[in-house]
Design goal:
Layout: H1 4-16, H2 18-26, H3 28-66, E1 70-75, H4 95-104, E2 108-123, E3 126-135, H5 139-142, E4 147-150, H6 155-159, E5 164-167, H7 169-176, E6 185-188, E7 191-199, E8 214-218, H8 219-227, E9 236-241, H9 247-261, E10 272-275, H10 277-320, H11 322-330, H12 335-372, H13 380-406, H14 410-414
Parallel strand pairs: 3-8, 5-7
Antiparallel strand pairs: 1-9, 1-10, 2-3, 2-6, 2-9, 4-7, 5-8, 6-7
Helix pairs in contact: 1-2, 1-12, 2-12, 3-10, 3-12, 3-13, 4-9, 10-12, 10-13, 12-13
């Protein structure tokens, strides 16, 4: 009785034995050209998977960078009587609206009013035009923005409209270089401020704007000292929903509340608009995944073409070696052994293409990472799938030529010229 282990050893020896290797090396150029299609397909799959994964991770990081389930209420309708007003277009939002949202919309956990504009910031002989934001202490939690140095301002600073501020990293570099700005005094416009904190780097926004090019201060300070006397409204209200699943419901409740507070008729235009930047980034993630799937499909076509090429090469090999096959069958070789030998040659070809494709894919991924300046990593599953795909293509496209070789009639094959 034959041992199952022994049978398996014989199968693998037939598949990847010296006969299969010798047959491939007999026609080196033909074997290399046959493996070329598989190499390109495997490399393309690895590149697409790696770049698609990096793009999704980058978009996910931008989503986290937006804030804690951010709901952004902006003053001014996007379209009033055919005119786009937008931020600073109306004076419809007030601090009372912000307090009402926090009080009457249970799905909202934090709010921060925002007053923003541009101003010249001066320190010594250095100056920089940047954007200031008057906010409440909750703003840092809403935006998930930690401090690198110092402390944040407090509710007491808000009540007293204190001249204190937090600097973004870009402003710090322009005014102070690498020095620590905490405790230093500077001027914003004509007003002196004390720097009490330095924000962690946040990087560009989803639209490419430098979020670190900013100065944060109490919103009352921005209203009373930078905007001027009689300025009581706010430009935006930044809100944080209880969870990502409740953002849509919270948005609907805010719309209903503000329309009621602003006494807007049922058929009237809103005098505010609500932005959800997460929708833009989620759409980018979905587009990235769709594009990656499309590119994988295109790469799979290359694998299909490569597989057809290997089938053609194996059919040509069967034709060239017809007399050899007939002789082996005539002296007692089993059809299964002949079939396994040719199948092994096909699998060896695809594995050669797969290995070259993995090397090309890894190298291409490194180059794309340097060019795009993205931290691109190759998922181990991608390489494993590449190996599995190589073997699968070899078996699928090598089966028919191998089967044809095994079923040759020995007498007819020996007479073949």
């Amino acid at each position: 009785m034959r041992s199952p282990v022994g049978s398996q050893v014989r199968v693998w020896a037939t598949l990847f034995g010296r006969e299969a290797v010798r047959a491939l090396f007999r026609h080196k150029l033909r074997s290399l050209l046959a493996a070329l299609g598989i190499m390109i397909g495997i490399a393309a799959v690895i590149l697409v998977v790696a770049i698609g994964k990096a793009g999704s991770e980058r978009a996910e990081a931008q989503l986290q960078n937006l804030g804690d389930n951010l709901v952004w209420v902006e003053a001014g309708s996007r379209n009033v009587n055919g005119v786009r007003t937008g931020t600073h277009g109306t004076t419809s939002l007030t601090m009372d609206d912000a307090e009402a949202i926090l009080r009457e919309v249970p799905l909202i956990t934090r709010v921060s009013p925002q007053v923003d504009s541009n101003a010249q910031v001066i320190y010594g002989d250095q100056n920089w035009n940047t954007k200031y934001r008057g906010v409440s202490p909750e703003f840092l939690d809403i935006k998930r923005w930690p401090l690198a140095e110092g402390v944040s301002f407090t509710d007491e600073d808000v009540r007293h409209a204190a001249n204190v501020c937090l600097l973004g990293q870009t402003v710090r570099e322009k005014l102070f270089g690498a020095a620590n700005p905490v405790g230093q005094s500077l001027r914003i416009g004509i007003h002196p401020f004390v720097v009490i904190g330095l924000l962690e780097p946040k990087g560009p926004s989803a639209t490419g704007q430098d979020q670190d090019d900013t100065v944060l201060m109490p919103y009352t300070t921005a209203q009373k000292k930078l905007r001027g006397k009689g300025f009581t409204w706010v430009d935006d209200i930044m809100c944080s929903a209880a969870s990502s699943q409740t953002v849509a419901a919270a948005t609907a409740q805010i719309v209903g509340l503000l329309r009621q507070r602003h006494q807007i008729r049922p058929d009237g235009e809103d005098d505010f608009n609500i932005r959800r930047p997460d929708e833009l980034i989620k759409a980018q993630i979905e587009q990235s995944q769709t594009l990656a799937l499309l590119l994988v499909s295109v790469a799979s076509i290359s694998l299909l073409v490569g597989g057809i090429g290997i089938m053609n090469v194996m059919l040509a090999s069967v034709t060239q070696r017809t007399r050899e096959i007939g002789l082996r069958l005539a002296v007692g070789a089993q059809q299964s052994a002949v079939q396994m030998q040719f199948l092994g040659e096909a699998v060896m070809l695809t594995l050669l293409g797969g290995l070259l494709g993995i090397l090309l894919g890894v190298g291409g991924t490194y180059v794309f990472g340097r060019v795009l300046e993205w931290p691109i990593s190759i998922p181990p599953a991608g390489i494993a799938i590449a190996f599995g795909f190589s073997i699968g293509v070899g078996i699928f496209f090598g089966f028919y030529p191998a089967r044809r070789a095994a079923r040759l009639d020995p007498i007819t094959a020996l007479r073949y010229e």
